[in-house]
Amino acid sequence: MPHHLADEIRTRLTACSVPSVVSTLFRMGYQNVFLRGVKPLAPGAPVMVGPAMTMRTIPIREDMRAALSEGKAESLQKRAFEETGPGEVLVCEAAGVTETALLGDMVTTAFKVRGVAGIVVDGGVNDRAAIEGIGLPVYAMGDASLPFTSHRHITALNAPIGCGGVAIFPGDVLIGDGNGVAAIPLSLADEVADKALYRERLEAYCAERLRQGAPIGTTYPPDAATIAAFEAQRGG
Amino acid sequence: MPHHLADEIRTRLTACSVPSVVSTLFRMGYQNVFLRGVKPLAPGAPVMVGPAMTMRTIPIREDMRAALSEGKAESLQKRAFEETGPGEVLVCEAAGVTETALLGDMVTTAFKVRGVAGIVVDGGVNDRAAIEGIGLPVYAMGDASLPFTSHRHITALNAPIGCGGVAIFPGDVLIGDGNGVAAIPLSLADEVADKALYRERLEAYCAERLRQGAPIGTTYPPDAATIAAFEAQRGG
Amino acid sequence: MPHHLADEIRTRLTACSVPSVVSTLFRMGYQNVFLRGVKPLAPGAPVMVGPAMTMRTIPIREDMRAALSEGKAESLQKRAFEETGPGEVLVCEAAGVTETALLGDMVTTAFKVRGVAGIVVDGGVNDRAAIEGIGLPVYAMGDASLPFTSHRHITALNAPIGCGGVAIFPGDVLIGDGNGVAAIPLSLADEVADKALYRERLEAYCAERLRQGAPIGTTYPPDAATIAAFEAQRGG
Amino acid sequence: MPHHLADEIRTRLTACSVPSVVSTLFRMGYQNVFLRGVKPLAPGAPVMVGPAMTMRTIPIREDMRAALSEGKAESLQKRAFEETGPGEVLVCEAAGVTETALLGDMVTTAFKVRGVAGIVVDGGVNDRAAIEGIGLPVYAMGDASLPFTSHRHITALNAPIGCGGVAIFPGDVLIGDGNGVAAIPLSLADEVADKALYRERLEAYCAERLRQGAPIGTTYPPDAATIAAFEAQRGG
Amino acid sequence: MPHHLADEIRTRLTACSVPSVVSTLFRMGYQNVFLRGVKPLAPGAPVMVGPAMTMRTIPIREDMRAALSEGKAESLQKRAFEETGPGEVLVCEAAGVTETALLGDMVTTAFKVRGVAGIVVDGGVNDRAAIEGIGLPVYAMGDASLPFTSHRHITALNAPIGCGGVAIFPGDVLIGDGNGVAAIPLSLADEVADKALYRERLEAYCAERLRQGAPIGTTYPPDAATIAAFEAQRGG
Amino acid sequence: MPHHLADEIRTRLTACSVPSVVSTLFRMGYQNVFLRGVKPLAPGAPVMVGPAMTMRTIPIREDMRAALSEGKAESLQKRAFEETGPGEVLVCEAAGVTETALLGDMVTTAFKVRGVAGIVVDGGVNDRAAIEGIGLPVYAMGDASLPFTSHRHITALNAPIGCGGVAIFPGDVLIGDGNGVAAIPLSLADEVADKALYRERLEAYCAERLRQGAPIGTTYPPDAATIAAFEAQRGG
Q1: Nearest CA in chain B to C177
Q2: Is the peptide bond before A2 cis (omega within 30 degrees of 0)?
Q3: Closest to F162 (Cβ–Cβ): which among B32, B95, B159?
Q4: pLDDT per residue over F84-142, tens digit each?
Q5: How far is B191 from chain F (nearest CA, A)?
Q6: Nearest 10 degrees: Cα torsion E74, E75, E79, E82
Q7: Rounded to a whole number, what is the distance in Å from the CA of A94 to chain C's nearest CA?
């Protein structure tokens, strides 16, 4: 059963940027939520928000590869591709190995049709050019062309993983934009959405004032007067 | 005399993507044909296909640099730039050193005029912005501005080299697109072209079915029924 | 008081490319002026030219972070953002640490309004997507979202620094384009501007000839006859 | 219940070197069994042989660290230290993070008393100098002094892991000496022990002949005559 | 005037190990005090304890090197070597550049005679073999043979620096042993000495019990009963 | 035919340290002669001096590996092991790939018997522990256990190579000690031997004075008076 994220939390987060979410979590005491080295492949794709369907991998061994190719072992890759649900984000721990591709434009196409929210892997993908045209947010570390079983073996779905140096538990909320990807602990998603959205609006207000020539010293980070002015405008 | 590639092989390969070629070679037992870390500079350029004119380099030593600048030693760089022929790909082993530029927009311009197929170096180039506008496929690891003799010394042309961690023999067929570059052993080029082109068409068929909502489990990788349907459509 | 750069030097340098400047300095005996790993965030932004306002940082320690957040220590970050003057380039030594962001779109917006020439950091920035739209040249090593005090502590403004492996003294002239950033010793700026501009024009002449099919062997690097022809055309 | 390894397999493997085991597995089709970057801390310690008790970790998150320190979550670290049995090797996946120490001389001392066979981690340990004196084989990537919960969170014991880029399943046989560590699939341990021991003795024979001046061309790798002579001597 | 460290603090710290100091500081809220990648060259040397005389460097530029070699600029290297006082530790920020040597056996010899406490550099040194025999603690990242001015330029003495990723202020107390080096903020040195020494003795007590077969679960980390027994023995 | 080095040059160089040789070459204008990352395996072995027998390698391809194992292609590895002559140093370019071993204790034993001067590879070797006991100087980047053909293919013997980032031509003189390895251009060997030996003796004199308490400021680097005193003592 796919992980669930309340629509109204998703909506609020979709209006936020990754830096606002990361800054908000930092103020709440969480210092390590931004995935390192994981970059957007399709800059034009919309903001990605969704709960994590996780995939855990280890280096492959020749007997495992043979068992998979001979059909003697179940392919968790195939199962994950079939089961990642609408609104979910598939997140794969690939340990930074970019010599092999988790997936390419075919899976991306199928996920787009199915309504999957996005794909994140701290490893490689293939068909970058084709993926850019599909419109599904895909985040990866590099380009590869070998099948995934050339280097990695999937040992579990929906287990806790590390991805880009960040802890991700199944159901945690992933958010991605042009800056990269951050992971929000599920229990904090509502609070983070509120605070980050507030921050997003405050920053938009500050940016507008800066564009009009307000001095940066009082405008950003906003001092008490700037915040009060923002609150007043907002309330009004 | 430039290395030769039969037109009809070139034509078929030009219709393939790098991932299709790499997957095909993997199935034929070749696991290491995709150059690591070598990226396209001109994303808008056409697919690159051509036989390799290779260039072997080592770290430079001060007496070699002096001999070159004083005209006491032949510049193999100059010779390579003059002799790389129409349809060929100049491939330079630079050992990942990105502090120096093999070439820039001037050589790229001359090669474009001459009909050279492309340029590949696991090192640096300069004038990235200008190269993007020329329309010749150039693949490199980074941006540099120093003349090549600041760091590297060319010791041989058309010798076997390693580039991006891949073995390349003179005449091997290089193919490059937005995903990067792969090297095809010359003796396999015809077979690879056939198989990769088949794969390309099969994948296009699968992608179309996925876009129409076919389930990924049977569609990709395609099961027997999907392949049969593809064959039928193709034959009909 | 902001560092000053004579308008007519700035004008000439703005007509040059970074590779021309780096090659010129190399011929003058300066081998290490191109910043490694520092990339443009806003490819569409104009060429950046301006004297360096430098910022020196070290790893942060928890007592320093507390003192800053409690207002017991002066924030040099705030002061630098207020004091970087029109026409200057803010250059920050971040030692390649990309886990934290020196600044984001807010400061970029304020600098754009103020007429600052650009921003360079061998570390991270946030809000990449927003920065791309502002039109101020920003050069960095990566994307981050944490506040700067999460990892770095500013110890001095306008002290000598290293950035991207290059020595930069306050007032040195930074030039940046799509290739990256180079640092010109202030005392050499006038001479470099002359020579690089000459080189720029000579290369444009050579490129035009190459486009018309001139042989690369005599055209680039230009031999005596090509230079003479260029001089003649120029003089005429 | 601790993993078991038959005494007579253990005895034979203890007489082998890691290179002999790795070469033997390579000939059997296993190319990736030698852990990269994991070095012996106590060169004087005996050869390590034993089945793997595995420990899986991910990056830690602040709420997990708090739950552990407040006793609200079970410490798998404590459990692993209590339960690793006589003859076993504790193997921890730390993803190459050397900023934190899995353990130090205290745990090493307790393991030595208990008869644990050894410790392997692709991360850090502390008290290197003290560990060297204890006599238990410990293999790690570096020196650290922070408690393990500063960076890593243990999510499972006796699950499949990757360590030093190699797949390790619970019960797989780890062998370590001055060269480093290799992992033998449990089902192959008997066969590997036989073949590696044969190879060990053949190489000792070849080495003796080389020391007496035999030509390397026929002696190593041994040609048919050399192997026959070895077999004859051995049989006699 | 050399930085001073009270004898009785120095004495207590000399009885501690680096891991005890790092753990103590971690409990006091300081997470980043252990220098990364800086290794002891002379394992047999005594524990190093002393206040930091710091040296700040940037990449060198050809005009600075010329000025130094022609005597037109003061050599801060020479001054630092002359002025580092008895009991002090010379700490140099070299930014991880190991291609050049800060010093070798000559300076080490002079410092040994003068009573300098030790040398730390996150860069290279030369004459490793000779340094090992001198008996002065030296910590570095690698071996180099080029003179320091080949790559680095010293811009300040006794300014705040980063070394091995750790903030070091002039006068901070450096401690080094076989595990590596840690930096103690000067204002905390007394408190750290007390707590680390207590910890050192407690761990020695636990280790002794572990050697006698006490169960690790209650002995280390020590539970209340173990601590009480330690306190009783100590008091008695 | 083996490369030759005059005995009296060899004798003088054997009395020098690597840092003295590197400093001497630096003063002669050669900045890049010290191999990066190549470490001694047998610290107790004597100083290594000898002309280079070079070995050039590229990444292997599966068809080459098959041809070698089926005897359809000549093994240059075997030839090199047979032909490296007494007094020579075998130097292999392995491009920093440490996953495979060029050789192990068997070849080292044969070379010791034959009187080969040493072995240098910027890649891996196996049987470290055994090599340490043989007494032949071996320099490498790491430990590996796979046969060399698992990753590398030898394409030429006695061609120019890069090793550890340094240019090495066949016959160039390699010198190695506990600090690492340097390459001396053959044509400079005599001059370097003279100058480095002088420097060696001068430094020994300075060191002795430093041990007796002479001030470092005038003693090292030695001022005119110190040099004069050295010359006087030497002459007398």
Answers
A1: B129
A2: no
A3: B95
A4: 999 999 999 999 999 999 999 999 999 999 999 999 999 999 998 889 899 999 999 99
A5: 15
A6: -130
A7: 20
